[in-house]
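Researcher: I'd like a candidate sequence for this fold, 197 residues long. If you have to choose between options at a position, lean toward the conservative one.
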């Protein structure tokens, strides 16, 4: 994965977290984002991760992590426990999209979601050439991808409207991690949203 883009994604998320806030990172991987939020923002953070090796890596990074399957919900967390619940580059891998968004906003005041934009122009060109896209944000071949969903900014915003979710902020990045201000559904590779009820 492009490290500049990863940093840009994390930069946006970190800018939305105020000092001392409570953060739950779903699909936290090795805990890199939480480690940064704790170090730079004084956040109090917890992670949830399914993969055993990633859980061990997160523990090695000093992260409080719970091994669990997001598809089973967040029943172990009380309502409004966190200021932010983060789902970074994971929404496209979950089967029950509406349920996880609902759960995120049950346990947190704000949901922060990032995902690859399938309508990005390079992805469109790949499909027009008869192939499934492989890019910085969609790095897997069709036969080994963990992604279950391929959707666009417009698709996600329509789902938010259907679920009566408030989009507080949307930032869209290109493959180099730069902000895209014009035609984001066409020129943006990765979208990052702040959501509330």
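Model: Candidate sequence:
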């Amino acid at each position: 994965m492009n490290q500049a883009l990863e940093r840009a994604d994390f930069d946006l998320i970190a800018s939305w977290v105020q000092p001392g806030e409570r953060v739950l990172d779903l699909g936290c991987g090795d805990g890199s984002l939480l480690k940064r939020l704790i170090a730079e923002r004084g956040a109090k953070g917890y992670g949830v991760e399914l993969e055993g090796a990633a859980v061990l890596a997160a523990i090695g990074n000093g992260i409080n992590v719970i091994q669990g399957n997001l598809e089973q919900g967040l029943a172990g967390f009380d309502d409004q426990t966190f200021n932010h619940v983060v789902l970074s580059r994971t929404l496209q891998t979950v089967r029950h999209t509406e349920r996880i968004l609902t759960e995120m906003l049950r346990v947190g005041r704000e949901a922060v979601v990032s995902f690859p934009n399938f309508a990005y122009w390079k992805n469109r060109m790949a499909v027009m050439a008869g192939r499934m896209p492989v890019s910085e944000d969609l790095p897997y071949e069709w036969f080994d991808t963990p992604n279950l969903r391929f959707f666009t900014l417009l698709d996600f915003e329509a789902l938010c409207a259907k679920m009566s979710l408030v989009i507080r902020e949307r930032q869209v990045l290109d493959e180099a991690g730069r902000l895209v201000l014009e035609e984001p559904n066409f020129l943006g590779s990765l979208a990052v949203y702040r959501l509330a009820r």
